[in-house]
Amino acid sequence: MNSIERQQIIMDKLNDKGSVRIADLTKELDVSRETLRKDIAELGRQGKLQVIRGGAVLNKPVNETIYNQRLQQNLAEKQLIAQNAVKLITEGDSVFVGNGTTAALVATAIKTQGFNNLVVITTSINVLKALEDADPIQVVLLGGGLRRIEGSLSGPLTLANIDGIFCDIGFFGSGGVSVDRGVTNHYFSEIEVDKKMMQHCRIKVLLADHSKFTKMNPFRTASIEDYDIILSDRGLDDATISSMQKLNVKVIV
Q1: Which tens digit of pLDDT belongs to each residue from 205-227?
Q2: Domains assigned to the chain
Q3: What is the β-pairing status of strands 19-21 and 55-58?
């Protein structure tokens, strides 16, 4: 892992939690404290964070607007992905929609499409909000521990509830994507939910705008070939598309 990748992970964690500790990052990224101090110092020089003893904090307080800020990033591309996602759904389907800003836009697109016979299962409060008045769509929220800043549910209760859930198609978000390393994320408990839910979906769809292909996170969710379809946008380079297609994965941009 190079310095750019490490610094991206540090910023992603800061944007989510507001602070990071070098002691924690050392274990997660398997690098020395001195290396992380240099990474944090460089980000501090760029004005992206404030260096404190033993770690760093954001220059501005973290609150619920962090999610909204992420939602606005590459918004047109995410909306395109959401529109293509809806085209994969047919009346009568049971649909899993996971966490993340693109997943929430998929929920909005489902509502706009005007389905009459659909069951949507989710671990996302934001997906629930998008569909709460979308009659006659049946919405099932899996229980679990709430990560407030993301509006996501995970943990032992969520995993137990998945045992009785089976879907025709599932839409899964991502923190980072690599053809070689697969799909990665920051939060281990959410990864466990995605892994189990993927086993309960007949068709598995990855939602990933082109910017996700420049990021890598500590924990791996799945390999590229574990998905049936990858939805991205026209910003994704041809070489990456070709590499994924060679793995017998359908890519839609």
Answers
A1: 999 999 999 888 888 999 999 99
A2: 3-58 (1.10.10.10), 68-252 (3.40.50.1360)
A3: antiparallel
